[in-house]
Amino acid sequence: MKAALRYTLFGMALAGLLFACIAIYISASDQRHLKTCEVLKVEYADSLRFVSEAQVRKTLEERYGAFLGQRIDSVDLCRIERILDESSAVKKSEAFMTPDGTLHVCISQREPRIAFILKDASFYADIQGYLFPVKGELIPGVPTVSGNLPLRINAGHKGPAASPEEQKWVDAMIALTSYLSYSKAWKGTFKSFTVRDDGNLVLVPAEGSEQFIFGDPFDYSSKLHRVSEYYKKIKPAEPDKTYRSVNVKFEGQIICRTKL
Q1: What digits encode the pLDDT tens for the residues 39-67?
Q2: 39-109 matches 114-257 in fold
Q3: 206-244 tens-digit pLDDT
């Protein structure tokens, strides 16, 4: 009898605990139903800051609508992520809501390694050769390539170039400019890169009047070796002579001209 009573009391206590948990859950659900999104907090998964919190807020306000003041259980987090992932410099986004009404957005960004300036639009490319539109002013310090670029891409394009040949050229330009930017010997030597109407890539140094004709961005190490030979042997030998163009695109040749 005593055992039966103990079991009865235990069952009643367990039922009471269950009802209490249910009541707490219902109360929390009611509170969540009433709680609204009050704050946007943008966090970063990297050290880059190309996408600002103001840009994230503006993008969401324009494409999602009013999220502040919306019930937290009705904020469409998947839609927010899709919208942000379509932004130029956003590689991946993650959105989540906390019970205090804060919308957290964690951003992973694409790092621009080079900018291609076309007639109707401009594009960055990251280290993988992924192209995305330039928004606003160019980021200082990112190498730019202008002129008659061999690229067929429309405004708003995101992704690889239009053809394998164009992508190969993009990748070669990234490799060349990255090498020049990080090499102790060459860093700061060239101020601009342009492609002439005849298709030749030209490197313009920060000092001096020469223009170095590369031809294409491939095999850049041997071409830069010829540029180095020009600075070491040819220019010192004729200090009073001003060369306007130095063609280093041919193996084993350095062709200097006084006129462009």
Answers
A1: 999 999 988 878 889 989 999 999 999 88
A2: no
A3: 998 899 999 999 999 999 999 999 999 999 998 888 899
Domain boundaries defined on the chain: 39-109, 114-257
The CATH superfamily label for domain 39-109 reads membrane protein fhac (3.10.20.310)
Instruction: Quote the CA–CA distance of 91 and 110 in Å, as a whole number.
Output: 5
Q: What's the pTM?
A: 0.76
